[in-house]
Amino acid sequence: MCVYDRSHCCCKADVKEFILSILRSSPSMRDSRNYLSSFGRPTAPPFPNPSEQLSGATPALSLPPQPGTDPTPATDASNPQPENPLVASLLDPIVRHPALVKIQGPFTDLQLNSICQGMAHLQKLGLVSVIVLDRDDLPATEPADTAAAQRQKKMVLRDLEKVVASLGRLGAGARPVLSTVARIAGKSGEGDSGGERVEGEVFVEEEGLDHVRRAVTEGEIPVLLPVALDSGCRTRRVGADAVLKALAESMAAAPVGKGSGTGSSVVDLTPLRLLIINREGGIPSYARQGLPHLSINLASELSFIQDTYLPHWSESHPTALSNLRLSDACLAHMPRDASALLVSHRSPAAMIANLITNKPAHSASLPHALLVESEGRLTRDTPTLIRKGLPVRVLRSLDEVDRPALNRLLEKSFRRTLDQDAFYTRLETDMDFLIVIGDYAGAAIVTTEPDSTPEGICYLDKFAVLPSHQGDGTVDFLWVALRDETYGLGLLDAANPSEGSLSGQGRGRDLVWRSRADNPVNKWYAERSNGFITTPDGKWKMFWCDAEERLRERARQGGREFGGGWLSRMVEMEEEGRLARWEPVIGAIGSVWAK
């Protein structure tokens, strides 16, 4: 017996797995709104967001206020409630968007079926995969020997047949594209359209997208071979990466056109995701002891990751760096909030979570001990999320600060008017450094508060991100840079590549900050801190992160591993004296907001 969705036939077990995959992604209200804005019904009412309104505490992460809405009318049998827009959009997306997908085999039939199940689920959610097949066991280019070239083409063609058949069995319409979509620039260095091209460059012209456009318009998944037409009109096998880069450029430049069939109003070929499905998993990270990066900010980390890639990773992850470069090239043509996901074939559910939340499996700003040392939290198969990101700078002098830009950031983030005289007078004497991400899309201001000790208190005075950049990874990238300059300083994994950073050189310091007791973002702060208390007046919560270098050194001296119960017991031994010293100093810091 089968149950039907609105477009395909699938068995109950598949429907159940589909629903469970959505539930496991645990989307927040913001995630749901972002999904609906891209894939949902254009006339759907906005989701309310009362719990994410922040109080403008110091410091705070803030969201834009929701516009006012009319009171909800009373309901009766003649006036039924409108359907839930999130549920309706999940079951019947109106707007379809493509994702570029590289299936990097070879895979067994069982593995391919698991991958195709993920593609089928994404299709139901409105993301139509444009698949390019690849095989690690074949050279990137076609050999000169004709017989060998034919054998290799047959291997890739068999993979295409398997993928199309598997998608069909799962109720996902798939279209094998046997025609040559891409071309190779000849000696003239020009494409047919007259645009200048480097000799040997793979490109896709507008007419080459016809097969892809028709498939996406009709909600079918096009499956492409990694081939291109050379200047002599011969089909050559080329690297899948070259085809994907050419598709990203051409699809992003393609005009938006009207779709056809039920459920599609327009077809925009601009890819929103790049999915690289391989056997390696994510890109190994020095900071994670060889386990994968959770998220990567290409604007500030690309060169650093390539320069510090350890030799033995080339054996366990031979294509990690080439996939990183592929992500950089494709994302350059994709929207700012687009992302690339490097995911193992063992983690198909991660693709569902990434589509709905556009976030990594775990926040990169969570404590290292929690991520690395918690059993099962981070594994080789944990995906790596890659974003264009923004450059990060560390400013050590107030003279380097663009004050008007910082003022706009703080006032938009906190939704309050800054008392500029009081604010900058304080920074002139107390500022330690200021981390700026992008063109003041976010900032973290750290001061040194004088107390009875020579070093003073390392205090996070402001942490702010523009509402337009919340949900695109900026918050996590900013916090990671903050960690590397304060409580993570002195460790090899704190070698922050940001301009003006200390690159891990120095001694870590305890970081302290406060937030209003009723601030909804306190849960986020608590997850990233070693502890917090409520001040005696009940007005504030004071948080702190312990210097990791000191904790690790004492753990080694005690013959115990860093993290877990030892961390908790050791912190308790020190807390009483520190808190008694910190609380009056932090509590006495005056407001810099206009009355």
From TrEMBL:
Pathway: Amino-acid biosynthesis; L-arginine biosynthesis; N(2)-acetyl-L-ornithine from L-glutamate: step 1/4. Keywords: Acyltransferase, Amino-acid biosynthesis, Mitochondrion, Transferase, Transit peptide. Signal peptide: none annotated. The keyword Acyltransferase applies. GO terms for biological process: L-arginine biosynthetic process; ornithine biosynthetic process. It holds the Pfam family NAT. It is an enzyme of class 2 (transferase). Its main location: mitochondrion. Belongs to the acetyltransferase family. N-acetylglutamate synthase involved in arginine biosynthesis. This is Amino-acid acetyltransferase, mitochondrial. It comes from Dioszegia hungarica.
